[in-house]
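Figure 2 data, in text form.
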Amino acid sequence: YQMMGLYNSEKTIVFNTVQLYRKNQLSEIEKQLDRAKEGGYKLGLKLVRGAYMEKEALRAKEYGYPSPIQDSKADTDKDYNDALDYCIHNVEVISICAGTHNEESSLLLANLMHENRLSKSDPRIWFAQLYGMSDHISFNLAAEGYNVAKYLPYGPLKGVLPYLARRAKENSAVKGQAGRELSLIIRELKRRKNVKLNP
């Protein structure tokens, strides 16, 4: 947030990630908006559902404090979508990067933009997915003119491998994620085969 104060005076360059699988993050966003208004800077938020749920739940149990994790995925989904709505209604100060592989949340954000007469290419609003995941969301949004980023981790093998191993473990914990991706790939291959056979 100190860096936002230094670099986000005219446009949003610095973003902070908000993990909405944690409780009370909506009130944290509200506090940060007040802080940005007081400091005269733009607030940059990357909204994600979260990546450390199992680790944080185990840590809370180990150290004997209440778990900071939402009680259910439905609670996480609700807070994520409520955060999108809140940010869009405060877009004069908040720029958002919606990091999600969820079709419903992506559609909600697109609809919120339309309802609030915001351009699809508004530089304050971005959709983001990991490279190789949810390409059907990324490509369709981009084709419609929305701002889309694909997140591609790279670097020396020694540094990147632990990160990739963690992401693989997390993604395998997301119910149905791998199966959904595979079924979409198979469906697209069949479609392309049919197009080739029937020009």
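Caption note: The longest strand covers residues 43-48.
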